[in-house]
Structure formats: structure tokens, C-alpha cells
Design a protein that fits this description.
Order of helices and strands: EHHEEEEHHEHEHHEHEE
Number of strands: 10
Shape: elongated
Strand content: 15-25%
Helix content: 25-40%
Length: 200
């Protein structure tokens, strides 16, 4: 059976060669434009919201930010033919995902967010600890006075959740010399932390 895959046009055009290769020759694509219209990729024909019957939805980051995002997720929510949804987000606790899982729709999440979010966290902590604007102001005024700062080294971290993001944050904090305690409902023993605890 030929899969019809629903996705946003912007994300599809950005990643077309990767997506079509991954989906294989039997897949066809239903694209949602930013103006909330649907187009069949192979023919360029318009499709109606009520008649669209995708079996798969690929929710790239573009559709979360698109003016058509709300309409896209409405179609995902009500489409009776949907069997599988791939989301670019790491979490799956939004009501729409719960409803889909209750209907038996397969849901897969992305693990692409771990590295950029972990790097953001490390950057934010360094800015807080090191106060680089004070050095920049000293440079600009040519007043080379020191200021009090601290290092990540020897700090203590608690990372709640040991999914991809929590693991990536923990690994980077540890590399800076921090002591990391991870929190997880069911510890597995392979977490990149110094100590583990449950929420209790």
C-alpha cells in the first residue's frame, strides 16, 4: 500500500532529497502551505482538508512555527487514516499526542534537540557564572579591573529527566568538572551522571 505523508511545504522543500529517500518510492506527499492550503506534491493539485487521508504525518520544526501549524495539527488530530506521526520535538506530553496514542497511532519523537539545547544550557550557565559583560565593559573603557566570578568546575548540578536532552546536558556539565545528580523515575544504570535518584 502506498503511504501518503502529510508535512509542511517549507520543511519538505528544505529536506526533500532526504525525506523522499527515507520514505521510498512508494510514498507520496501531501504538503500544507503556510496559507493553510493542501497540495499533492506529485501533481501539484489542491487537496481538500475534509478528504485528506494521510497515513503518516511528519511534523518538522517548520510546521510548529508556521501560520498553518494549528490547521496542520487539527488535521493530524481528526484524520482517521493516520497510523504514524514523527515529531521534531523531544516531548510527547501535549494533549494532541496523548489523544493520538490513545487511538493507537504510533508516535516517534526526535533526538536532535539534545546537543543544541545542552550547549545552550552550558552557555547560559557560563554567562551567569562568569559575567562576561563585565569584562567587555572593562575592555571598552580600558579599565582592566577584575571581577568576581565562578567556574562550572566543582559546581553541583541536578538534572531532572534523563532523556536525550538530560543526558547531553549531564555529559557536558561533567566534562567541565561539575558533579551531576540525575533524576529519573526508573534509573537504568547507564546515565552519564555521578549519582542517580528518583523523584521521591
Amino acid at each position: 500500500m502506498k503511504d501518503l505523508i502529510l508535512t509542511g511545504r517549507t520543511g519538505f522543500e528544505r529536506h526533500e532529497s532526504l525525506l523522499t529517500e527515507a520514505a521510498g518510492p512508494d510514498a507520496s506527499w501531501l504538503l500544507m502551505n503556510d496559507d493553510k492550503t493542501l497540495v499533492t506534491h506529485s501533481t501539484g493539485d489542491s487537496a481538500t482538508f475534509d478528504e485528506a487521508r494521510p497515513t503518516i504525518a511528519w511534523c518538522g520544526l517548520d510546521i510548529f512555527r508556521s501560520p498553518a501549524g494549528r490547521r496542520f495539527f487539527k488535521l493530524v488530530q481528526i484524520c482517521p487514516s493516520l497510523q504514524w506521526v514523527q515529531s521534531a520535538y523531544a516531548g510527547h506530553d501535549a494533549l494532541i499526542w496523548t489523544d493520538l496514542l490513545d487511538r493507537g497511532v504510533e508516535l516517534t519523537r526526535a533526538s536532535i534537540s539534545g546537543v543544541p539545547i545542552a550547549e545552550y544550557v552550558i552557555g547560559a550557565v557560563l554567562r551567569q557564572f562568569q559575567q562576561p559583560t563585565e569584562w567587555e565593559q572593562a575592555r571598552d573603557t580600558k579599565s582592566w579591573t577584575g571581577h568576581v566570578f565562578r567556574e562550572i568546575d566543582q559546581s553541583r548540578w541536578v538534572v531532572i529527566g534523563m532523556g536525550d536532552i538530560g543526558r547531553q546536558v549531564s555529559a557536558r556539565a561533567s566534562a567541565f568538572g561539575a558533579h551531576v545528580t540525575g533524576i529519573r523515575r526508573s534509573p537504568q544504570g547507564d546515565e552519564p551522571v555521578h549519582a542517580m535518584a528518583t523523584p521521591d
